[in-house]
Design brief:
Its main location: membrane. It is found in: Cell membrane. Keywords: Cell membrane, Membrane, Transmembrane, Transmembrane helix, Transport. It is built from 19 helices and no strands. By secondary structure, it is an all-alpha fold. The protein has a single domain, classed as Up-down Bundle (Growth Hormone, Chain: A), CATH 1.20.1250.20. Helix 1 packs antiparallel against helix 7 and helix 9 packs parallel to helix 16.
């Protein structure tokens, strides 16, 4: 294949990858929105809502290292396509069960577990394959385009879900999800996952244990990777306060209507879209870990502002408008954390280890979330939300400052800090 043909194929991958992610995310978001409101309507409990979120996280956290091993040792394209087929069959099974027996909370929990496992195979394998699909020069653009597509889908998902909730049954939500994944499957089937691959194919495969140990040993040699994993471990525990509490506070405590809550969640997607456009049109961040630390501190501080509607008398329209702005800001800061680190890690990690490293990182980053969701689900049912949110905000700021001191940032980006010091010296002369 000539370089011109490779560039043409990579450009095709940019758009195909973007479109497939948008369709799959749109279907997932519409279904997730409907299911979350269904569970709250049936139970009225934050703990029940948290249980479904645990079902969407715990299986992925447990299976992620094995998925990483599979992605590094077997055909990425085959893994992704089989995972998409699995998702279609699982949701189709829930649709059939609903038609014959009727929808139940426990059926939703079971479906969430198995679809989460399929999503782990698809998501981690895709993450490890991005560089091979588009090449290192287009990496930030590819990740930005991918996030833009997911943001567009995330804008449409809650809005469509909010409008559908009052007029259609859960069967329609399931049908939309199935149709979206069929389209995504057809697009992904046309992609060449070895376009920019530098990995040599070997007949002899590592055993699962040897492969996992190799990934773990590789991580031990990368101090910055270990630091990022520890930050993710603790931060994801505390950010369960928003994952669980956001929907519970807005819908159950403040009694915001389902349609309006769809617009609130849609604002988060708009924020991600704006941030994605920013990263897609600018050079790579020079010191991504430093950039992410600043964004994390800003996000932690903004969590404290979620208590204002709980302690002040706002009109209904002001209440909805306030949370629209707040969710927009949350998304901007979240992208400021994830995008620079994502590009940095893609370039830092060798291709033959990416699947295992990203799998182990995902396990570490998600390990605390099920515990956090269950704890926060119970806390929101027993303690004032204002106390929970303010304590969480302070805790995240403290953990960020402890785990990401300036010394770590200088080690991660020595050239940036040398240049900064040189500029400072020149100014004083």
């Amino acid at each position: 294949m000539t370089e011109a043909q490779r560039i043409k194929q990579a450009t095709y991958h940019l758009w195909t990858f973007t479109a497939s992610k948008m369709m799959a995310t749109l279907g997932s978001n519409v279904l997730a929105f409907g299911i979350s409101l269904y569970i709250l309507a049936m139970t009225g409990s934050a703990a029940s809502f948290a249980m479904n979120m645990i079902c969407s996280i715990l299986p992925r956290a447990l299976i992620a290292p094995f998925v990483g091993y599979m992605a590094d040792n077997y055909s990425k394209k085959r893994i992704i396509l089989l995972a998409q087929v699995g998702t279609i069959m699982i949701v189709s099974g829930l649709l059939l069960y609903t038609e014959l027996v009727g929808l139940s909370v426990y059926a939703v929990y079971v479906t969430t577990v198995f679809s989460t496992i399929c999503a782990a195979f698809s998501g981690i394998t895709f993450t490890s394959a991005i560089s091979a699909l588009v090449g290192p020069e287009r990496l930030q653009k590819a990740m930005s385009f991918n996030q833009m597509s997911m943001s567009i889908a995330a804008i449409g998902g809650p809005v469509i879900g909010g409008m559908m909730y009052g007029f259609f049954s859960m069967k329609v939500f399931l049908i939309v999800h199935i149709a979206a994944y069929i389209i995504a499957f057809c697009l992904e089937a046309t992609m060449n996952f070895k376009l920019y691959s530098t990995k040599e194919e070997t007949e002899q495969k590592e055993t699962v244990w040897a492969g996992l140990k190799g990934g773990y040993d590789y991580i031990k040699q990368q101090k910055i990777v270990k630091t990022i994993m520890w930050v993710a471990l603790w931060i994801n525990l505390f950010f369960s306060a928003i994952a669980v509490g956001g929907t519970y506070i807005v819908v159950e405590v403040l009694k915001v209507k389902a349609t309006h809550f769809g617009f609130i969640e849609g604002a988060s997607a708009v924020g991600m879209l704006m941030a994605s456009l920013y990263f897609a049109t600018r050079p790579e961040v020079k010191a991504p870990l430093r950039f992410s630390k600043i964004s994390l501190l800003l996000l932690a501080g903004s969590i404290g502002f979620t208590v204002i509607p709980l302690v002040t008398a706002l009109s209904y329209s002001m209440l909805v408008g306030y949370y629209i702005v707040l969710y927009f800001i949350f998304a901007i800061f979240e992208m400021g954390i994830n995008m620079p680190i994502g590009v940095y890690m893609q370039k830092l990690i060798a291709e033959e280890y990416r699947g295992r490293v990203f799998g182990l990182m995902e396990t570490m980053s998600m390990a605390m979330m099920p515990l956090g969701m269950m704890v926060y689900g119970i806390l929101y049912d027993t303690l004032p939300a204002t106390l929970i949110l303010l304590t969480t905000s302070i805790s995240v700021i403290a953990i960020t400052l402890v785990l990401l001191p300036t010394a770590i940032l200088k080690e991660a980006h020595p050239e940036f800090y040398r240049q900064k010091k040189k500029q400072l010296v020149n100014k004083t002369i």
